[in-house]
Each structure stands twice: as structure tokens, then as C-alpha cells.
Write a structure and sequence with these properties.
By secondary structure, the protein is α+β, with helices and mostly antiparallel strands. The chain is built from 23 helices and 31 strands.
Amino acid sequence: MRYRFYLLAIGFLLAACNNGGSTKSSKESDSLAIREKYAASPVLDAKTAISHMEVEKGLEVQLVAAEPVVTVPVAMTFDEKGRMWVVEMTGYMPDTSGTGEDIPNGKVVILEDTDHDGVADKRNIFLDSLVLPRAICFVENGILIAEPPKLWFVEINNDKPGKRTLVDDKYTEGGNVEHQPNGLLRAMDNWIYNAKSDKRYRKIGGKWLKEQTHFRGQWGISQDNYGRLFYNNNSENVLGDYFPAGLGAHNPQQKNVSGYDEKIVPDNRVYPVRATTGVNRGYMKGVLDDSLRLRNMTAACGPLVYRGGLLGKAYDNNIFVAEPSGNLIKRNIIKDSGYIVKGHQAYKGYEFLSSNDERFRPVSLYDGPDGALYIVDMYRGIIQHKTYLTPYLKNEIKSRSLTNPLNCGRIYRIVPAGKKTVPVQIQNEPGKLLALLDNPNGWVRDKAQQMIVDNHYTSLAPALKERLQRGDSVNGQIHALWTLEGLGALQLSDVMVMLHQHNPYIQAQALAALPAVITPSNGREILKELTGLERNVFLAPYVALLLPAFPPQLEKETDTLQLQLVRMCANDPYVSDAVISRMAGKETALMAQLTAWKNDTTLVLYKHLKRVMKDIENHKKASMDESLQKTYPRGTILFKTVCQTCHGADGDGIQSLAPPLNQSEIVTGDKHRLAAIVLFGLTGPVNVAGKQYKAPEISGDMPGIGSNDEFSDKDIAEVLSFIRSAWSNHAAKVTEKDIQDVRKQYKGRQRSFTMEELK
């Protein structure tokens, strides 16, 4: 192989000389030489795979589990014994056509290290016969398991499945494997949040609650020590919330609320250690650099706020992100500036962890009971779902035999070099659980809180209230507060203990917990406490976000505080959006009030309110009704499966993902141009209704579906006709012949279009 490589290199060099040494010929020869170097993609055993990894100096990667003990893992969680409960998505993409994806072969397995050598040696199947399961979460005496489209609660009886309860029969609505809800993060506020979803869940007594929240991310979700949520999408490094997870999502007409779904780390550059030609858009200019390595994220997932404590202080609260297309894990440094959270990549030119093994596919990251950082590696060739698989990537998969094997999978941990970790086994005793709320490991603190709540240890309430008085550990105080809330034992006096402290982050936690204790009888007292805080730059947005929690009986008093906030902060986007959130259905009245006070169209509140009112008008004009769905039944299904996940059910686009389809001249204009976009894809920027959309505000590329055998030309014509007639759109239908004509016109094309090409 080496001799062949040198012959090729000499040949290309001579060719370059014969062409006058042109740069183009030199680049082509370099590219061919690189492709020759990575022409094969051998399957490595787990220990050998570690030797192909480069990790930050002073740390090491240790094997925790590998096939046959675990196969195709995508998510996991730890129990109080330190055992891993792993979700295996066995049916994912058996080949480039996705043949057999609907076979019920997914599992939830319990992995255990019985000989205490640090590697799992025992496998127990808890659940099987699942179709593409994707997330898991412990609650009380059972687990939540996401198996699209349903969310199940399964009781645990001696490590065997017991009674099943259907929590949500529409946990996922539409979408494909890459674009369906997942995560099931049991957050500090005792609610369970998801990525790629605007729903949250909670079990109180024997009843499951489901509430609307902010739409967040794509794959994976994590929290920091203040319970703020962080997530991302496949082309964006870190997104997240500045404010408490449960506030600010009260107005369904308000698509974006400032302080939520914010760009925390806008730098999406990646630095693989190998050529990464096997990415979906590798043929496009700018996707790969001159060494054929991925430039920017294309499969970012599994973000983790590291809170384990084991790696050292420098790593505390760093956010790690998996990038399976680049065979790497990125590290980001995060800092607070007031209530605003911003971050940057830890390194330039290299990564926290990277591998030259193309089959290393990290998809999820976790804190462990031992404080280590855990990596879930699918270890496979194909990770792109069939819906968006380009002919280019199909060829890459074929050329390096990436389809098989399908029975691999690994779990690793990252620890200080030479460190033998000691898992924490949490004893289910009230006093010991109380002490663990101050543990330096965030996973241990979270688990202790959850076990106190799940076991209804209300006898700990007096000790928890006493713990609120001590300021020696902020983390312990915060967990004591939310443990009381979870037990239903939190009182107004407890919250006031926190609110009257000088640490603004403690005060913010108190404000976040206030909705749990507000009643018609104490509401006036609370409003008096809050009056004056609107002058506090740090706390004013929290106060504004709290307003919807006050009962209707106190509407007049709440309006008074809101007016004070408006007059103080009408140019503050966070306060403005919080006020709009409260005024669902009353936007016109708010506009009248604002105009009467100060008729200034430059105010941030005015601009944001005007935008929401325009969206309301657009929705009133919407024509996506039952008759349209009956006219285009297959188009409706295709829209929900492929388009809705990025462009939104209302066609108005989703922040950080895709621009609007509603009132888009691209959609309602030339139908052959639209067909070309859907068949072959589109690379931004694009202009819709006078606004330019480009990365990183949205994903820079929309993949085409023209090479997907699952969709016929008739199907594609139907979905285009559907979106050209839905909402406020009114344009001529698209026929099967239109699609066929466009295919003929661009026969042999693989790459996406740009708007310039289509003009």
C-alpha cells in the first residue's frame, strides 16, 4: 500500500509539472493522495480503538463496555447502584435504504461490572421488542422510555418490567429518526425536559402532567448547576437558556422569547484528525478543507455540562459536544456575564478528544456517579438517516464498506491519567441522601434530590428548611430548595429566605421557585416583595417572567407591576418578551397601553409586539384545514415527516433550524425552482419576506430528498402542492410531470443549489 501511495504521489507531481505546476492540479493530486490514505475503514476492537484516539493531556480514555455486552447504544442513565441502563437502537439504518428499520429489535439493557475491574461484564435485558427507542429516565419505581411516537412509563420489579402506563401517545408527531423528541432530562426543577420538543412532563402522585414549554434543540439536553438548560442542533455548537426552564412559555403565538434558545457558543468550527469525506455534503465547496477534513459541525449532538468534579476545576461547567461526523468531542468554556451566558471553544486547531477511526461515533455524553465523563459510541459506519442520504454519501459508504458490521457499540469514560475510579453507590436512607445534596459531583446531587422526592421523604422537610439558612454551599442551598418543591413542602417563607440573600444567583433561584407557592391569599404580599426589583438590572427579567404565575384575582395588581417594568425596561429584549409572554390573547390591549404611554416605534417592546401581532394575523389567514389534508393525504404525511421538523407545523420556521415556508416567495414562486430545491437541496443564504436567513441563524443547508427511494415523484408533487396551498400561501399545484421534468433537466446533478444558481 505504501509503495502504491508513493507511485501515485510521484505521478500526480509529474502531472502538475506538465500543467505548469498549476494550483488546481496540485490540490487535486493532494486530494487523491489523501483519499488513497483513507481508502479503507477497518473495524477495530474496542481497546485498539482507544489507541487511535487523541485526548487532552493529563487525561485518558478507559473502556467501560463493548460488544457483545452492548450494541448500538444511543442513550443511557445510571441507577443508584452505579449500573448503566442503556438504550440500544438496533434497528437504525441497517443499510443505505433503511431496510427493516420498523423491526422491533430495540432494547433497554442493564450493564453491570460484577468483578469491579471497571469494565461491564454482565448484561441483563430489561425491555426488548422496541422500535427505534431513543431516551430513558428514572422516575419513582420505574423508567420513562421514548419509543416513537409514544412515551411509556414502565414500573421496575426486581430488574424486570412491570406495569406499563402510556404517558403520551403523541410524544413524537411526525418527523424522522433524526428529528424526533429525545433527552428526557429530569431537571433541577423536578420537571422532565426534552430536545426537539416543546413539551415537559412530571409525575405527581398517580398522575402524569404534560405542559407546554420552549422548543429546544435536536439531540441531547443538559443542565448546569443553576438548572439552566443547554442543547444544540446538528450544525450549531451550543444553544441554551439564560433563565429558568419553566418560565416564559405562556404565549403560543410568540415564537421566540429572548433569553431562551440563545446562541451560547456561536463558533461551529471543528478540527478532525483525519479526512472526513464520509459526510453528507462532502462534495460541496467549503464543507471540507484542503486536507478533506470537515470545517464546521454537521452532526453536533449530545451536549453535556460537565459537573462531575473528577477531571479538575478547569473542566467544571465546561460544555462538551459530540460530533460523530468528525469523529470527535469538543470542549467549550462557558462564563456568565450578569444573566447572560456566553462561551468559546477551548482550543483552536485541535479538539478535546478526536479519533482517526471513521467508525468512532460519539452520540451522547454523561456525567457518571464516579465523576468521570462518559461517552456513548454507536461505533458504526452509517449515521446519516435515509431521508437525507445523498448519492455522494451512499457512494462513500459503498467504497469503504461502511454498512457492516451492525452489532458493535462502546461506552467509554474519560478520567485523569492513571486514575482508577470508584463509583458512588447511593444508599436509600433519608439522612445520607440529605448529606449528598452537598456532594461535589452534580450527578450525585441530582440523584439524591430525585430519590428524596421519589420516596416521599417528607420527614426531611425541617432539615431541608434549615439547610436553606446556610450559605456555605450554594449548590446545597439550591438543591434543598428544589427538593422541598418536589416534596410539595415548599412554603413562601422558605423562598423568602433565599430571596433576601445578597447573592443574585440565589435570589434568581428563589424567583424561579415562586410559582410553586403563589396563591390568591398570599399573592399581594409577594407582589409587594417584588416591587422595586424591576430596578435591579439582574433580577428585572426574572420578575417579568414571573407575572403569568399570579392568579386572575390579582390581575389589577399584576398589571401595575407590569406597567412599572414596561416603563423601566421597554428597551430590554428580555423584559419585553417576558411581558408579551404574559399577554397571550391581549396583545392589542398591550399595544394600546404602550402607545398611550410612549408612542415610540423604536422601542424593543413595540418591535417585538408588532412581530407577534403580525404572526397572529398570519395564523388567522391560514388555510391548512382538514379539506387540504384530504386533498393531499400523502403530501400531509410527507410534510409532517420531513418538512415540519425544521420549518414548524405552522410553516413559520423554527429558530436555529430553518426559515418560514409560509408567505415565502421561494415556495409560492416558480414551481420548477421549488421542485429543484426539494429534489437536490439548497445552500443558504436565502431571502424570505424581505429578510435574509443564513448560518448560523439557521442551518446553512437544506438536504434534498430526490435520491430517497421512499418518496415517489407523485409524493413529492403532493407535498409541494400542500405547502403552496397551506397557511397564507396560494399558489398553483405541482404535478408528478413537473417533478419528472425537473429531474430530466438536472440529470446527474448531486450538489445542492444556491439561490444565485436558481435565479
